[in-house]
Amino acid sequence: MPEGFEGRINIEGKKGFIIRGWAPQLLILNHKAVGGFMTHCGWNSTLEGVCAGLPMITWPLFAEQFYNERLVVDVLKIGVAVGMKEHVLKTEDRPLIHGIDIERAVSCVMGVGEEAEAMRKRARELGEMAKSAVMEDGSSYTELTQLISELSDLHP
Questions:
Q1: I need a surface site. Which of 36, 44, 46, 60 has the fewest CB within 10 A?
Q2: Which keywords does the record carry (predicted)?
Q3: What are the pLDDT digits (tens) for 84-105?
């Protein structure tokens, strides 16, 4: 960490804190103080963000992450891209994402106005749908139960 960084983050224990090591992502995403999620768009993180009902700032790096970004930004309309356009194998060859691009994305997700509020509302609604799908009698619960039953019937 740069010298003085922790002091700028943790002012009298009121502004923020630094987690060293593995962070409990699900607990963090589901905390009432979290208003958005910057993600690399890996499938698990994407699902965790959707289930938490959060709008997302997308920053894919490789593989299917660019497809997941399109789902979040263009289909579900609950995200804003920082501008990473293509997979580059070597880290040192990746294009630089400028702070102004990150600031723009954060402002779009956390800002005021009809578009930002509509994105947050869609994200919350998708989160509720995801939670209800895994509850008893929800679509995912029912389909998984049916699959287990069918597989069990194959080997009595």
A1: 44
A2: Glycosyltransferase, Transferase
A3: 887 777 777 788 888 999 999 9
